[in-house]
């Protein structure tokens, strides 16, 4: 019996793509094989790709599949059904803005993004499915057309290991979502990975994207974004704009206000995701990646279809 390799260890941004992939295949994907029995489609809710037919709405159906034009004509709700397709096309929408560099030096949000993206791409390509990606840092950095195979995963990982350039401006995720809408023509699985530290306005474009594709949104976070540690007087830098600010983290009142503000922002994000009609899942820099993915799969299995 093989020993449990334990939680995912962080990757060094100087690692080679081959080394990153081998480490994740051993420490994450091998463990997922035992937990998910290879049924990776459940991560994406198993929605088929090609339109098949219309039928009357039944309780529990996904309301996003309601055909409103037919519903209006028939005066009764109808939903679209889709053929299950053995081959999926998946697109990863990856936020590489400066705030993704936040977190422990040995495992920042950026490092979790690389790990998560590499694992998802490998899980999909192993089944013969095609994976593409849009890398975004307030503008499209790279557009990787969908292909299958291990080399495609290595190509994606290589691009993610390239350092992102600072932009000096606040992130606008709207640009990433709109770029995806222009690029992705065939119905696909679309996975958005971001910390969602962004200017507002992305909700409506994301809702429109979700009308045409199976959409999964994963928010990357770090615990210190919610609870600021007592570290005395420190100078902090706004990762998005580069602005410097001196704060006294030993002040309990300051930490309390910081926590309340972070909670309010988190609640506003959850409300925005609900308005966009998208399921939002959280992965922390402290999470074991295999456990986090199993948690997402189990949550999606419980969703009404």
Word description of this protein:
With 305 residues, this protein is α/β, with parallel strands linked by helices. It folds into 2 domains: 17-45 and 85-221 and 279-301, Rossmann fold, CATH 3.40.50; 50-83, no CATH class. It contains 8 helices and 10 strands. The protein has helices at residues 17-36, 68-74, 109-126, 150-161, 173-183, 203-212, 252-276, 289-301, and strands at 50-56, 78-83, 89-95, 130-136, 140-147, 189-194, 214-221, 233-237, 244-248, 280-284. The strands form 3 sheets. The chain has a 6-stranded mixed β-sheet, sandwiched between helices. It has a two-stranded antiparallel sheet with strand order 1-2. Strand 3, helix 3 and strand 4 form a beta-alpha-beta unit. Helix 1 (17-36) packs across helix 3. The longest helix has 25 residues, at 252-276. It is globular and about 65 Å long. Residues 1-9 have low confidence and may be disordered.
């Amino acid at each position: 019996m093989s020993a449990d390799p334990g939680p995912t260890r962080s990757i060094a941004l100087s690692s080679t793509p081959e080394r990153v992939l081998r480490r994740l295949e051993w420490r994450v994907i091998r463990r997922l094989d035992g937990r998910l029995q290879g049924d990776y489609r459940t991560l994406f809710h198993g929605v088929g790709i090609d339109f098949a037919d219309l039928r009357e709405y039944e309780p529990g159906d996904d309301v996003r599949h309601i055909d409103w034009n037919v519903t209006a004509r028939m005066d009764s709700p109808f939903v679209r059904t889709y053929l299950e397709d053995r081959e999926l096309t998946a697109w990863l929408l990856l936020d590489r803005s400066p705030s993704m560099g936040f977190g422990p030096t040995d495992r920042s949000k950026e490092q979790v993004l690389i790990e998560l993206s590499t694992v998802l791409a490998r899980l999909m390509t192993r089944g013969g499915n095609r994976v593409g990606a849009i890398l975004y840092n307030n503008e499209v950095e790279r557009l990787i057309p969908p292909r299958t195979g291990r080399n495609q995963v290595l190509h994606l990982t290589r691009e993610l290991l390239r350092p992102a350039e600072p932009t000096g401006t606040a992130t606008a995720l709207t640009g990433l979502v709109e770029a995806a809408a222009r690029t992705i023509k065939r119905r696909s699985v679309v996975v958005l990975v971001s910390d969602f530290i962004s200017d507002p306005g992305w909700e409506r474009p994301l809702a429109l994207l979700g009308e045409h594709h199976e959409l999964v949104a994963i928010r990357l976070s770090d615990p210190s974004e919610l609870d600021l540690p007592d570290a005395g007087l420190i100078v902090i830098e706004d990762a998005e704009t580069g602005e410097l600010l001196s704060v006294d983290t030993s002040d309990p009142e300051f930490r309390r206000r910081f926590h309340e503000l972070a909670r309010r922002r988190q609640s506003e994000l959850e409300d925005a995701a609900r308005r966009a009609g998208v399921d939002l899942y959280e992965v922390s820099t402290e999470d074991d990646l295999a456990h986090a993915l199993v948690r997402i799969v189990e949550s999606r299995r419980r969703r009404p279809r």
